[in-house]
Write a structure and sequence with these properties.
- By secondary structure, the protein is α+β, with helices and mostly antiparallel strands.
- It has eight helices and ten strands.
- A four-stranded antiparallel sheet has the order 3-1-2-9. It has a four-stranded antiparallel sheet with strand order 5-6-4-7, with helices on one face. Strands 8-10 form a two-stranded parallel sheet.
- The protein is flat and about 45 Å long.
- It starts with 6 loop residues before the first helix and ends with a strand.
């Protein structure tokens, strides 16, 4: 199969930043708000977008009570927020490509904050499309393969409709077209497999290494402050440690 896996490198920085994020519940409350608006209501049984968000929230240990409170707020009409999805592009230290996905009720606030982060720690914000061409949108399913047979899992994944299967030490990575993601995920779940990660991601086509210590520190700090920002949902980058 193609390519060399970078999951360990990405997950190390992303996971470290996520661990410092104090308001992960806010992230999923906003995602649920968008799903309710776009999917047609606050009932996950009839809104597949909402059901998918709730599934991801539970996988990150968001309590059922928090999920229920959010749903009840929208069902009762008490929610007044109007969030929208925006994506910003720019360059981190050393020219690292950075994509920032946000859900915000105030685009002026959010764009100013993202521009500040990129100017302070990187090389600044760019125009729409300046770095997104360096990423491919894919479904990514990550499995701990330590006690699993590589050949068996690979065949299960490919038969379910996966586009690619990669192995990095004891980590199995399954890649899908975005439209096939849910089908492949459910098929592998039915096989009894548990996932370290399962989501739609922007996967870099190539990676940029940083060798300057100041660049590395600035990249780490930039990711930290971005992940701590409630408006920012995901930060995709092509930094290779």
């Amino acid at each position: 199969m193609s390519g060399h896996s970078k999951w360990h490198n990405i997950q190390k920085t992303k996971g470290a930043a996520d661990a410092k994020k104090a308001k992960i519940f806010t992230k999923y409350a906003r995602e649920m708000a968008i799903a309710i608006k776009e999917g047609g209501g606050a009932d996950p049984n009839s809104n597949s977008k909402l059901a998918a968000v709730i599934s991801r929230a539970k996988s990150e240990n968001v309590p059922n009570d928090n999920i229920k409170r959010t749903l009840d707020k929208y069902k009762s009409g008490a929610a007044t927020e109007n969030y929208e999805h925006v994506t910003y592009e720019g360059y981190g230290p050393g020219g690292v490509a950075v994509l920032v996905d946000a859900l915000t009720d105030n685009k002026n606030r959010t764009v100013a904050e993202v521009r500040h982060y990129l100017d302070k720690y990187g090389k600044g914000m760019g125009a729409s499309g300046c770095v997104s061409w360096q990423f491919d949108k894919k479904g990514v399913i990550v499995i701990n393969g330590e006690d699993l047979d590589e050949e068996t899992v690979m065949m299960q994944a490919l038969e379910a409709g996966a586009a690619d299967f990669q192995v990095d030490e004891n980590i199995f990575e399954v890649y899908t077209d975005p439209d096939d993601f849910d089908t492949v995920k459910e098929a592998l779940k039915a096989e009894g497999l548990e996932f370290l990660e399962a989501e739609i991601q922007m996967v870099p086509q190539t990676y940029t290494a940083l060798t300057n210590e100041d660049d590395i520190k600035n990249m780490e700090k930039m990711l930290e402050v971005m992940e701590a920002n409630d408006d920012i949902q995901d930060v995709w980058h092509n930094w290779e440690e």
